[in-house]
Amino acid sequence: MRTLPPFQTLLDRYADDVLGLLRGAVGRADAEDAFQETFLAALRAYPRLQDGRNLRGWLLTIAHRKAIDHHRARGRRPLPVAEVEAVIEASAEPLDGPGLDDGLWEAVAALPPKQRAAVTLRFGSDLPHAEIAAALGCSPEAARRSLHEGLTKLRKELA
Amino acid sequence: MTTKTARAIDRFREAAAAEGLLDVAYASADSPFGPLLLAATPRGLVRIGLPNQDSEALLEELAAKVSPRVLEAPAQLDQARRELDRYFAGGLRQFELPLDWSLSHGFRLRVLEGIATIPYGETRTYTEVATGAGNPRAVRAAGSACGSNPIPLVVPCHRVLRQSGALGGYAGGLEMKESLLELEAERAQT
Question: Using CA atoms, how far apart are residues B190 and B186, in angstroms rounded to an integer?
Answer without folding.
Answer: 7
